[in-house]
């Protein structure tokens, strides 16, 4: 072998050895990274948690808050949050709601927030609707007329509850009114974020991807569905991420995201419930929403759900209207709830 060939062979071997050292170094670093402890609760989030309670649903603990407000009113409102966040989405309008309603109730769906996050588990909209019914039964409100206020993922849960009520299913709620907000209730006008599509359809790769999601990746994704002038603060991003990470909730996101496929499969059931009900309906809509874009979404809603009233908020408001414009959101909701 020539001297030049020998040198090349040595250099090649040294190159392979260098990459081997890098790989051996990365393995423990990656292992540590994938097991980062969940963030500490902020004082605000800790107060939210300690002011709530849990009840048991099929062996899992479900977190909820239940406060009494307006004296002389018997009205009850039940709040249904969106994906991937939690009941804390309602914290900016909680006190205004308490001033109008005798009772304000919110829960963290199974797999969200401070509720249990079992895995493996087949999460479904049907199960989440049963969670809501079980909570209402637990609170002794089965015969109470309830006002449902929902957002995003919660919109579809609300439509399943509406279907059960209108079809007189066992254990159904007594729904007095329903107000939706920025939910992807029509598959044909719903545009999931890229990461959502990847997580829900990547099979065995999805559990790996859920472990790779970190605060920076999460906050960038959430920020994309807020308006440019209504962005969360750093502390608010951390509160949302902490809710996701609590009990390793990031590891069930791929399972929960099957709700997008469920919306398509059960479109006739849920959109049919919306178009046929006699329950008072309202839609509060942030028009800058990239997930349910304007004007396609709202035009289709007004075409199909002609009995519903609609409030379109300011043009800078996006997918989280109750957080981005709590005053405008509350004004729209109170105008609706006081109209019948």
TrEMBL record:
The record's subcellular location field reads:
Endoplasmic reticulum membrane
Extract the Pfam families matched here.
Abhydrolase_1
Checking Gene3D superfamilies in the record gives: alpha/beta hydrolase
Entry's family note: Belongs to the AB hydrolase superfamily.
Q: Which UniProt keywords apply?
A: Endoplasmic reticulum, Hydrolase, Membrane, Transmembrane, Transmembrane helix
List the protein's name.
AB hydrolase-1 domain-containing protein
GO MF, one annotated term:
monoacylglycerol lipase activity
Q: Where is the AB hydrolase-1 domain?
A: 76-326
As for membrane topology, the entry says: Multi-pass membrane protein
InterPro entries membership: AB_hydrolase_1, AB_hydrolase_fold, AB_hydrolase_sf, Epox_hydrolase-like
Superkingdom of this protein's organism: Eukaryota
Instruction: Please provide the Gene Ontology terms (biological process) for this protein.
Output: acylglycerol catabolic process
GO annotations of cellular component type? endoplasmic reticulum membrane
